[in-house]
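Discrete fold record:
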Amino acid sequence: MFSHYKNMITGSSSNTSESNISYGLTKPYFASGDEKQGPFDLTYYVKGAFAGGVCCSITHGALCPVDVVKTRIQLDPVKYNQGMIGGFRQIIAAEGAGALATGLGPTAVGYFIQGWFKFGGVEFFKINFADAVGEEKAWQYRFPIYLVAAACAEFIADIFLCPLEATRIRLVSNPQFADGLISAFPKIVKQDGVIKGFYSGFGPILFKQIPYTMAKFAVQGAAAEQIYSLIGSEPATSSGSLKMAVSVSAGVVAGVAAAIISHPADTLLSLVNKEGAGGEGTIVQRLVVIAKEIGFKKLCLTGLGARCVMIGALTAGQFGIFDTVMAATGAKKFHFADPAKSH
């Protein structure tokens, strides 16, 4: 069972025959048999946040050209009706290859900030939720813990991401609007104000990102468990290269699942940040107008193939880079362990 915070704070030690797990800020360790995880202290969470920022910034930045094409397909499916490859050709022919990097600045900055709070937050919340419920229940309810931890972390991350995502979409939909992030920010504030300019898409971004992140971490965790089971191994006894291969493979599965679940909201988010979209009125009224105009089928399917390719690759890359950066900083990532195998 879990050691109580009182014991950690007072320095009281638990009998190892009664307790294999100990979390907290004073004695933040997890032990299972001969395996010892941790320490899960402030330094660990900062390393997790930094690794998350790096992995999200790199992957979203690298896939910026794909995101430009996807966003154009969502914003103007009549014009960009030749699929992903055709969309690339159309944009390059009309605007040059440089147009594929439109919005790279807000993408890299925005997703570093989002990744910082998302990955760092998931580590923080899942470890502390596991501590709160106890060892056996933490294992039994590991997937609900994944889901709740991901939702909490993503909500915080989206508060910081939303203005930068709105700026990116504004630049992609109208490349003449501004030269980049620095010049676009004050122009949006002057033209639309902070709330309308930066947070019109806050509802859709929550509707998109929270289910996406919940699916991403829960499915990745479940897929990784299945892969380890199939190969007859466990994280504690696997080499670094094997753990990386499992993490990346599970990331592909998680990315595709997350892309399908969150795609309708992603389409709405792209459209609501387009200048004049949805007419006047509140954000909710504008979203309803947009949804009625585009129709349910198109809302769910327009650009879905491109997004599955993008998010599948992106998610696999994120988990791979996250594990690499964590290892480089000397941190060992927390994982749930079956207490039945610990005794």
